[in-house]
TrEMBL record:
SUPFAM superfamilies reported in the protein's UniProt record: SNF-like (SSF161070)
Species annotation: Drosophila mauritiana
Protein name: Transporter
Key words of the record: Amino-acid transport, Disulfide bond, Glycoprotein, Ion transport, Membrane, Metal-binding, Sodium, Sodium transport, Symport, Transmembrane, Transmembrane helix, Transport
Stated role: Unusual broad substrate spectrum amino acid:sodium cotransporter that promotes absorption of the D isomers of essential amino acids. Neutral amino acids are the preferred substrates, especially methionine and phenylalanine.
Classification via InterPro entries: Na/ntran_symport, SNS_sf
Residues that bind Na(+): 69, 73, 307, 406, 410
Transmembrane segments: 58-75, 87-107, 137-159, 219-242, 254-277, 297-321, 333-354, 397-419, 431-451, 471-495, 507-529
Location in the cell: Membrane
Disulfide bond positions: 171-179
Length: 595
């Protein structure tokens, strides 16, 4: 070709961008004669504003670590392992990590960096599936609001740790004879078997949460002290992301590294406790018969998804701020490996403490020492800390400071993801206005979760607004990218009525929960119909075919790289056109799989 860029400029203006589609190809290409026009980015694509970049590649890495290494590792992983046979859980977890987790993590990094788009606009490669981005956006909104309420609890316990005696370590008179002091000498397990409760559990339920037994009389009013803690939590997130990645990237160093300092301190303390060896060996010794139970593998898949934070859109958003040539393959391996290491490290710490609790209780059954549930971080861990003979306040301060940092690191990513979508949509609005508005809305919604019935609502929203819908949207994301599916069928077959503390939710709350799920999952179908409706008139088949093909400007934000990408697709299409006889279903499937 001659200098077509000069030719276009001499001709007196830029014609309307057109696209061409080659038979048997799933790509929408710029017509060859118009490819050089991609160089005129400011005139050709005014909606593709120059995107901010991370201050350094290390800021991106630290932000991903702060996001993925969170409560899912320190809180959820050890007790998921406990419920699934200790060491028996490690084998399916590691298998799923390498077969599912690492490839998806790498895929999402590639999508974000290649396109420089947020979780909604990234699906311009298949507009029919744009609803996946909106579904993930709504799920993130639900998750971020109740995640902040958990951060508020950690702050409450952090400030309580300054007391001369840990307030959850002793019983109060109003609790009656059914209370067992967490710092006492009596065997805890023997007492609990006779329907006694530890002081840590009663402190959480009656002092901090003022928790109701059911939702029959409503959820009540927010706690004043927790409302203050919630406000501090949202203020912290606001200050970190007020300038986008320019400010959050700097904070990522502290958010990513501080938890490891605390964990190594706790590791030394845990391994020096009497009985710690038995607990660690329970964690590391496989129970081979457990590998035949489907539930163990199902829990391994869900743990990998939530631990790595894949299929929530945040990784796509973070990597969209990368420079185009950044080595995401290296970073994906570092983050996923470090995430696994952190889970194992947390497991050793927690099972060391559980081994000590079993030793103190006079039992060898590690699994019977504690019960899993939403309040684990505020019952089992404080109970163990209260038993420390030396400086329990210091360890308590370190532990809850670590939990708060982990919560901030994850919530910064979630809120930043929502912020990015809004900023891409409303580019003229100042960034600080979007951030402050999101924080105020998040604070107001979060007040629901710090009411006496708040833990019930968290359980309800965690399933209907996050867990279930995220699994569905994850499947559709993977279908859109690579025609892969996961284990939704198993979760549907094993689904039971949702309950909290052994009590099923009233019908009205279950209906509300399914309405939330329906609203989020409905985004998949609404935006699919919308994309189909926006196509030129024609047969239904042609409209569907067009709506699953990329937009003409899909690709790198840099116009020169976009032109190279379009030329690559054009050459590939011409090569395929020479082998028309190969264009049967079997060869098309082969091309999809093997390239």
């Amino acid at each position: 070709m001659k200098d077509l860029k000069t030719e276009i400029l001499v001709s007196g203006g830029l014609p309307k961008l057109e696209t061409s589609r080659c038979a048997g190809s799933g790509e929408a290409l710029l017509k060859p004669s118009l490819l050089p026009m991609a160089l005129e980015s400011s005139e050709l694509a005014p909606d593709r504003k120059p995107r901010d970049n991370w201050g350094s590649s290390l800021e991106f890495l630290m932000s991903c670590i702060a996001l993925s290494v969170g409560l899912g590792n320190v809180w959820r992983f050890p007790f998921t392992a406990l419920e699934n046979g200790g060491g028996a859980f490690l084998i399916p977890y590691l298998v799923v990590l390498f077969v599912v987790g690492k490839p998806i993590y790498y895929m999402e990094m590639l999508l974000g960096q290649f396109s420089s788009r947020g979780i909604v606009q990234v699906f311009d490669f298949a507009p029919l599936m744009r609803g996946v981005g909106y579904a993930q956006l709504l799920a993130l909104g639900v998750l971020a609001t109740y995640y902040a309420s958990v951060m508020a609890l950690t702050l409450r316990y952090f400030f309580d740790s300054f007391a001369s005696e840990l307030p959850w370590s002793f019983c109060r008179e109003e609790w009656g004879d059914g209370c067992v002091s967490a710092s006492g000498e009596q065997p805890l397990q023997g007492q609990l078997s006779r329907n006694f409760s530890s002081s840590t559990q009663l402190y959480l339920q009656r002092i901090v949460l003022n928790e109701t037994d059911s939702l029959e009389e409503g959820i009540g009013y927010p706690s004043g002290s927790l409302a203050l803690m919630l406000g501090i939590s949202w203020l912290t997130v606001t200050l970190i992301i007020i300038r986008g990645v320019k400010s959050s990237g700097k904070a990522a160093y502290v958010l990513a590294l501080f938890p490891y300092i605390v964990m190594f301190i706790l590791l030394v303390r845990a391994l020096t406790l009497p009985g710690a060896y038995d607990g660690v060996m329970y964690f590391l010794t496989p129970q081979w018969e457990k590998l035949l139970e489907p539930q163990v593998w199902y829990n391994a898949v869900t743990q990998v998804f939530f631990s790595l934070a894949v299929c929530f859109g945040v990784i796509i958003m973070y990597s969209s701020y990368n420079r185009f040539g950044h080595n995401v393959y290296r970073d994906a391996n570092i983050v996923t490996t470090l995430d696994t290491f952190t889970s194992l490290l947390s497991g050793v710490i927690i099972f060391g403490i559980l081994g000590n609790l079993a030793h103190e209780s006079g039992t060898k059954d590690i699994a019977s020492v504690v019960k899993a549930g939403p309040g684990l971080a505020f019952i089992s861990y404080p109970d163990a800390i209260a038993k420390f003979k030396m400086f329990p306040q210091v360890f308590s301060l370190l532990f809850f400071a670590m939990l708060f940092m982990l919560g901030v690191g994850s919530n910064v990513g979630m809120v930043s993801c929502i912020m990015t979508v809004l900023k891409d949509q409303f580019a003229h609005v100042k960034l600080w206005i979007i951030v402050v508005s999101l924080s105020v809305i998040g604070f107001l919604v979060g007040l629901i979760y710090i009411t006496p019935g708040g833990q019930h609502i968290i359980t309800l929203m965690d399933f209907h607004g996050v867990t279930f819908v995220s699994l569905v949207s994850a499947i559709f994301e993977l279908i859109a990218v690579g025609w892969i599916y996961v284990i939704l069928v198993y979760s549907l077959l094993t689904m039971r009525p949702l309950s909290y503390n052994g009590q099923e939710f009233p019908l009205v709350y279950r209906v509300v929960g399914w309405c939330v799920s329906g609203c989020i999952i409905g985004q998949l179908f609404y935006w699919a119909f919308y994309a189909n409706f926006k196509q030129p008139k024609g047969s239904l088949k042609s409209r569907i075919n067009n709506s699953i093909k990329p937009h003409s400007d899909w690709g790198p934000s840099d116009p020169k790289k976009l032109m190279d990408y379009q030329m690559f697709l054009r050459n590939k299409d011409e090569e395929n056109a020479k082998n028309v006889n190969r264009r049967c279903v079997c060869y098309t499937a082969g091309d999809r799989i093997f390239g």
